[in-house]
Amino acid sequence: MKIQSYVAGQWCSGDGREDTLVNSVNDEFIGNVVSLTSGFDQFLNYGREVAGPQLRQLTIHERAEKIKLLAKYLLDRKEEFYRISYMTGATRADSWVDIEGGIVTMFSYSGIARRELNNDTFIVEGATEQLSKEGTFVGQHILTSKEGVSVHINAFNFPVWGMLEKITPSLIAGVPVIVKPGTVTCYLTEAVVKAIVESEILPEGSVQLICGSVGDLLDHLTEQDVVTFTGSAATGQKLKAHPNIIAKSIPFTMEADSLNCSILAPDVTPDDVEFDLYIKEVAREMTVKAGQKCTAIRRAIIPVTLTDAVSEALIKRLKGTVIGDPQKDGVRMGALVGKHQRDDVLAAVEQLKQGSEIILNGLENFQSVGVGNSKGAFMAPTLFHCQNPLNNSIPHTIEAFGPVSTLMAYDGIDQAITLAKMGRGSLTGSIFTKSQEHARELILNTASHHGRMLVIDQACAKESTGHGSPLASLVHGGPGRAGGGEELGGVRAIKHYMQRSAIQGSPTSLMAITNQYVRGAKTTSDRVHPFRKYFEELAIGESLTTHRRTVTEADIVNFGCLSGDHFYAHFDEIAAKDSFFEKRVAHGYFVISAAAGMFVDPGQGPVIANYGIDNLRFVEPVGIGDTIQVKLTVKRKIKKSKKPDDKYVTGVVVWDVEVINQNNEAVAIYDILTLVERQNEA
Ligand code: NDP
């Protein structure tokens, strides 16, 4: 079988480097990858010219909807991927992380994008900046899709998740992708890309796949392209320093070797639940994916007094790991991805022996199932104990990318902090403690060296997603040795594929550009009340100025009785005189309630519900005898897609509300959100 690439709308292979791929479990032949040798400039152009314009034409919500559809499609076909995944040495549980973990990331991102971003082709970021005294010159940040392609060079260990977690934010950002998977497991990535292409959900050319070498692809990148890399620090640094990448300032996100640590805090004793949780987690991180995880615990930092207790408990647990053919019942740990990878791990094990003692030898005495003599890339968990970790850089530097970890003891919490930081930058760190003081001290003194940290105690252990699981909504990436990049992390990841620009001009110009009302922009008004209009009929900048209302003492008394709020500033003449306001004032909540009474059109109409209030500020006090008036303006419209159970087709209208007094001063400003019926389903 030939493993193929999908480029410029075709499945093909080349006439270059030939790699033979074998089953990690039994050495059986899977197929050959024959690398492409030319055409890389055309593949980039195909993405830029065929897919880019189509993706950019869609709104962010439309792109996110497609991602959701695609995730459902892939989920329906997941069993095909599981079958193939066994050949990588992964157990069903390992493959779940890779396959369903990747698909869940797509669902999560689709939701994040539709919830947190406007339904437009670009992003308006943050508040408008006032740049002049009179408010006629303002600024606003926007993010638009880069007009290039994002090239993702991925590691072998997560052939599905590694691809999906990167292509999802890029596609939602409107940028087509070229995926280059680690060759040794690229047959699984190929199967998923085949499904993506067959689904016909994404615009043609959105996802291209290059199996094998990427040839001179990097020479043809332009200023609008982006590169992400996951793999070894050596390759990452080489690619990051590629002359074309430097010359064109091409963003390069790197995730590389990470010597992640897990700290058992000094308050924990062997009788505590947290002790057992720690042993379980270290063992789990060593054995899931046979330890071939960028987030795995490589350094277990433990109190010196617990060295024997931790060693014994961990060895006992690891010895219970049944290793073997991942398709056989009872097997908990499969094979490494290949014999070459096992050789690399064994070479790293040799290096780790300097200054550390092997206390559990991965080549001896393990229970195995369905493993035939010398076949497959199997290796059992290997545990080191480093006697003098503060003066030995090796366990903090050598990443044995397999089921290998080192115990290192500390004496006093300062030493634990020093050891954690000796990793010189990690993706993940965890702390097991019952003590909030220890949690705070350890986190605040080591977070500078980590991309993500978790604190585990018995209160959260049951629901914890674990040390090694990156999540769509949280940052994945780490400083220093971990590559200095940042993948995932909610909307941040989408923005990595977009250009942020500061736009300056008059409020009216900025309103026209951003499709959002900017205070001070020209507004329009109509004889028809805006609450009588359907979603489609409302224009950005359409405004209603209400009648006026003079606030009386009776208003304050009535509101106080109704709400039960008899705060002195509203009710105590003497205390109010001494107060910040120097007089009795109306409740802020009365002002916004009265405002609603003034701008609402009470009859039945297209406005279905009040969704909430954002950015509320009481700017000036309202006293007895002050006269208020409200200006209500359509600020932003968010079209919602109809779900099968929804009674109405709707959109959210964000209204800018400004309550002013008789001196034309703002007394309250805020946004209200209403759910408004749409006339059309499309
Ligand atoms: P590599 O750095 O060798 O490869 C990573 C990716 O880069 C692969 O897709 C590889 O392709 C590609 N690549 C290699 N050379 C080039 C090049 N010159 N131009 C373009 N692309 C290139 O890492 P491996 O995946 O082989 O893993 C090696 C070690 O890296 C592991 O043992 C582990 O220590 C570390 N690693 C760390 C990870 C982390 O995130 N912490 C994740 C994975 C690995 P190809 O497969 O075709 O060579």
Automatic annotation (TrEMBL):
Pfam families: Aldedh, MaoC_dehydratas
Keyword match Hydrolase: no
Domain Aldehyde dehydrogenase: 40-499
PANTHER family assigned: ALDEHYDE DEHYDROGENASE B-RELATED
Top-level taxon of origin: Bacteria
Assigned keywords, A-Z: Oxidoreductase
Gene encoding the protein: paaZ
The species this protein was found in: Aliikangiella maris
Residue ranges annotated for the MaoC-like domain, each copy included: 539-643
Record's keyword annotation contains S-adenosyl-L-methionine: no
SUPFAM superfamilies: ALDH-like, Thioesterase/thiol ester dehydrase-isomerase
Name of protein: Phenylacetic acid degradation bifunctional protein PaaZ
